[in-house]
Amino acid sequence: MLPTDELTREHRLIERMFKLMWTGCNSLERGEPVSPGFFADAADFATKFIEGCHHLKEERYLFAKMAERGVPETSGPLKVMIMEHREGWSRSVAVASLAKQPFTDKVKVDIVRLSREYVNVLVPHIQKEDSVLFPLANDILSQADQDAVSRGFTQLEESFGGEAFRRQFESNIEGWEHRRGII
Q1: What is the pLDDT of residues 41-80, one digit of tens each?
Q2: Is residue 78 a contact partner of residue 71, using CB atoms and an 8 Å limit?
Q3: Which residues constitute the domain of residue 131?
Q4: CA dist 160 to 30, 51, 147, 154, 165, Å?
Q5: I want to staple 92 with a disulfide (CB 3.0 to 4.6 A). Which of 40, 46, 66, 172 is the partner?
């Protein structure tokens, strides 16, 4: 499997959580009950999986290898991707902080706003990676480069607990999909 295929597979998992976040926000806006634990789990996924692992894989291994092969980091697609990672990070950290607070009306309003901003930054970001950046990477990286990136991905994910790390989040998302009636 190409490293970009692995990242694309992770994008589908991320999009599932984004759908859950969006429907959770809709429910809050309609005054329907939403477990504060849901947003805590969503923020945990965002900070640990998306920001702490997925984006780190991209930046530390894929983007770095692309830069070695001549794609500039200070302009163009890599710069944009990294800037969008930072925009997402600030919102995921804010949602994580709010999810630990008592679930007051103000906290709910702020969670909705920041969750929607987070999704609105990263959905188009994912689309750009899938349709522009990853095909570019596949065109310019040799098989040896791809293998090096894959080894880096494996090493990083193993530092988080390996396949169990991913399965934990997949299981959690599946559970929330069932509880929220999204399948």
Answers
A1: 999 999 999 999 999 999 999 999 999 999 999 999 999 9
A2: yes
A3: 3-180
A4: 37, 13, 20, 10, 6
A5: 46
**Unique residue bearing structure tokens 């504060």:** 36
Tell me the H-state helices in the chain.
3-29, 36-44, 55-57, 64-68, 76-99, 105-128, 134-140, 143-159, 163-180
- pLDDT above 70 for 132: yes
Return the pLDDT at 35: 86
Record the tokens describing residue 164, joined without a space: 């169990």
Q: Which amino acid is at 76?
A: G
CA distances from 90 to 14, 48, 86, 87, 115 (A): 17, 13, 6, 6, 11
Give residue 104's region: left, alpha or beta (phi > 0; psi -120 to 50).
beta
CA distance linking residue 97 with residue 99, whole number of Å: 6
What is the tally of structural domains in the chain? 1
The rounded distance, in Å, linking the Cα atoms of 99 and 93 is 10
CATH number of residue 92's parent domain:
1.20.120.520
pTM (two decimals): 0.95
User: Could you tell me what percent of the chain has a pLDDT over 90?
Assistant: 91
36 pLDDT above the threshold of 90: no
Distance of CA 16 to the CA centre of its chain: 10
